[in-house]
Structures are given as structure tokens and as C-alpha cells.
């Protein structure tokens, strides 16, 4: 299948990306949130190889003890890649806020937790003089399965052009513990949540449809004609459209003759 | 090499260091990648890094050094006679003089590329005499157009030099990017069928998340590989070539002798004049 990637070569590209992007910005250290899941474990493995384990700090940020198994897996990933780790319980901050918000549902609470972790990551990155590595993969980014300004926030993202299926391939190549590789992917917004349960499709199915739509530039009709369920393709196309705002900077109202984002156009790596 | 985006002074330093190393390797000719003096993804920085080859201090320094080693490099060109016209250009320096400046003709503007938004297109592919025979220059995307190769072939090029900033794109089960194979295929084919040396220099490093693939290569007039630099790694890639191979190849297969540029020209005129839109 065309989605199969050469593991060692992909690791070479992504480790060089992490190293060079950090160096250009004047950094040698990285922080990332380690959830106990696959993506952040792969990112940790890449960072350890790119920068040396001593230069990578993993933040493990559980909400109380409701995901203690995930916390153990996160610790195991940090141990395997020999990176530093720090546990910060977000329950006190999150609970303090929601004490005055009795009508908040689980999605609001879940998003708040994701943004609490983001806020801590940015604070720790300033303290450590480190940049934040993003762990959102291409699948999540395309279907908008992430919290804007939450788990999607980062300085650079080495995984954003790899589908979940490909992240899984890299995980094996990097030596991510088998237990983590065997887990059901979950956003961890509430207990018992699984990505595939919530989306109604497996990542294998989603990735094949996305690959056809995005990488192969096939139309919706062509993808359906090639044997995918209409309902599944439509769900994915609808999710892609609905989440475009998460993948772009917010529009600026253009009123001057030269406007940021419209015709004031500089490279991200300006003078780097 | 990996140029610093938008900093000509630092990039000139990089050039001087590389020239030193190449001279120690006894190289006659040193080829840098596309926009080597400026970096690639300039966008609105284009106007701040533009140079006039006749007056720029950078050119004076490099011309002096070219008395001992031929130099090919990339820069943004703006001449006083064409103010506000910025070209993605390649210069060939030897013997203390500028022997040729080529302006990129085919400016990719689709998908991730936006060159036509910031550059004016060149209008010619011209060969020129060098101490190492007749040569022709191309810049990155030019190389993927068979018309560019044909014009240099028809113009008598014995060597084509291409400077490039080609991103690596597409992964497969094999080592390297799938896009790299495309360039190598063209190099091999044009070496063989234009019966010229094909020298292709591609940069490495990242700009805004884009990885440049590296993998510079040389093909002989027989279409044989004379080696390829590693993908993604900076390298001073040195190869000896025997310029007599052009004659050897053209004796064995007289493609050049049998070419009919007047037929091509007449047929092209009929095609171009036949447009009815």
C-alpha cells in the first residue's frame, strides 16, 4: 500500500526537522506532553533521537487518578527513551474553574483539560528554555479531532504529515513499548472514550479514505466509487470542512494596503 | 549546503568557506544550489536581497575568487535598467569574469510553490563558452521541462549545470523521497539523449518545515551515473569528469548530428500560430 513508509528514512527526516527547526530558533531543548498514548510516545522517541534524551522533558499531566493506567504507560515511555519526566496533576486547576460552572458538559470539561495542559506546557517551556513539540497526526488534523489552542498548540509538529497508520509503523521502528502500541487510541477527554468509538470508523478505514482524498486528490465520488461507504466518506469530508478553522490562523479584516496574512508575506523562518 | 534565509552576508561567508574547501580538493568548477546567496522561500524578502551583478560587492568578491575556480551560484537579480524586476537567477563566473547569468524561466506556482508571485520569469536558454567547453544553465524546475534541455542541446551544450532547491516529497517503502527519483530519471535520460554531462546540485536543510532533498548527481554523456551525494546531508560532492566523453558518445550515436532544429522550429511555429483562442 502506498501509505507504507520507509521507517529509518522517515526517522532521519523527522529528527533532522526537530534538530534544525529548534537550532534555527536558538533552542536545543524540547518539551512535550506525554499522555501514555501512541502519538506522544512516538514524538518523544523522535525527540530523544534528535536532541539527545537529556534535552527532552516530558510532562505527564493526569487529571487526578482517573487515568492511572495511562500515566503508567507515559512513565514507561519516558523510561524507555531515557528522557526526563515530570508529573503535574491538573485536577486542582480544572476543578477550581468548574466549581462555578455546574452546567458544563463533558466536552467542555475535556477541552478545558486540554487547554490547561497547553498552558502548563507553555509555562514550563519558558522555564526550561525549550520549545514545545506538537503530537497531532495528519489524521487528527484533517478531521479536526483535537482541541484548538489545546493539544493542537505547539511550536513545531513533527507528526503532522503522518497518518495514524504511519505513526503506528514508526512506533514499531522507534521501539515504543508494545503495550502502548496495542492500546485503543483515546483523546482521554472522559473515561471510556475511544477515538474509533466516537468517530464510528477505525483509523485504518479513515486513513485510507483520507489518503485517497488528500494525497491522491480523488474526488468524493471517485472515493465512493472505489468501494468506500458513502456515509463514511461524507462524514470525513464534512469533518474536514468543519475543522478548517483549526488549521489556519484566524482571518484578519483587511482594511489597509498591506495586511498581515494577506499581502504582508514573510517566511516563518525569516532570517534563520 | 543550507543557506540562511534572507541573509546574504552570512551566505556569502558560507560560499567563501565552501570555495576554500573545494580549492583544497583541487576542484576546477564549484556549483552551489538555487538561491544559494539568499535561501529559497523568500516571499516578501525578495526585494531586500536582490543584487546587481555588475555592482554588488558580493559579485566583486566572487569574481576575484573565480580566477582560480569556476563558480556557479544562485541569487536574486535586479538590474538598474529593470527596476522592480526580480529574477531567480544563476551566475557562472570564471577567470575573474561573469560568463553568463541565467534567469529561471519556469517558475513553479502551484500547490506549495509560489514563485510567480514574487519573481519575473526569464525568457531564454542560451549556451555559453567556458574553459571546460560549451555549457548551459538551468534552475530547478527548468530541469523538468524537456524544452529547456532541448534548447541547450540545440545550442551545443556539452555540459548542463542545474542549481536546485527541490523539496523532498512523497514517502514509500524505499529509502529517499519519491520525488528524488523524478530528477534522477531526467538526469539519466538527458545525459544519454542530449549526450552531455548533466550536473545537478540540490540543497539540503529545512525552510518552514519543508525538507530539501539533497542528492546532487552527475550523469555522463552515455547516461551513466557518475555518482550521487547522500539525500538530506550537506556534502562537498567532488567528481572527475572526462570531457572527451562527449565526443565519444556522439560518435557512437549521432543524435546531435542528426537533429533537425529547423524542423522543430517550423513545427513549433505551426503549433504556436495555430492557437485559435
User: Distance N terminus to C terminus of chain A?
Assistant: 37 Å
Number of strands of chain B: 12
Q: What would you report as the Rg of chain A, rounded to the nearest angstrom?
A: 19 Å
Strand order of the largest sheet of chain B: 5-6-7-8-11-12
Distance between the amino and carboxyl termini of chain B: 45 Å
- What structural class should be given to the helix and strand makeup of chain A? alpha/beta
* Biggest interface, residues from each chain: A-B, 24 and 25 residues
The number of helical elements of chain A comes to: 12
The pLDDT mean of chain B sits at 97
SSE order of chain A, one letter for each helix or strand: HEHEHEHHEHHHHHHH
Poorly predicted runs of 5 or more residues of chain A: none
Q: What average pLDDT do the residues of chain A reach? A: 95
CATH class annotation of chain B? Alpha Beta
- CATH architecture title of chain B: 4-Layer Sandwich
Q: At the third CATH level, what is the topology name of the domain at 7-194 in chain A?
A: Rossmann fold
Q: Using the CA coordinates, give the radius of gyration of chain B.
A: 18 Å
Q: Largest sheet of chain B, described in full? A: 6 strands, mixed
> How does the major sheet of chain A shape up?
4 strands, parallel
Count all strands of chain A and give the number. 4
The CATH superfamily name of chain B is Carbon-nitrogen hydrolase
Summarize the SSE layout with pairings.
The complex is a heterodimer of chains A (272) and B (277).
Chain A: H1 7-24, E1 29-33, H2 38-51, E2 56-60, H3 68-80, E3 84-87, H4 91-98, H5 106-128, E4 130-132, H6 138-143, H7 164-174, H8 178-181, H9 195-199, H10 203-215, H11 220-225, H12 230-242
Chain B: H1 8-24, E1 29-31, H2 46-49, H3 57-65, E2 70-77, E3 87-94, E4 97-103, H4 115-118, E5 127-130, E6 133-139, H5 146-154, E7 159-164, H6 178-194, E8 197-202, E9 206-207, E10 210-211, E11 217-219, E12 225-228, H7 245-252, H8 255-258, H9 261-273
Parallel strand pairs in B: 1-2, 6-7, 7-8
Antiparallel strand pairs in B: 2-3, 3-4, 5-6, 8-11, 9-10, 11-12
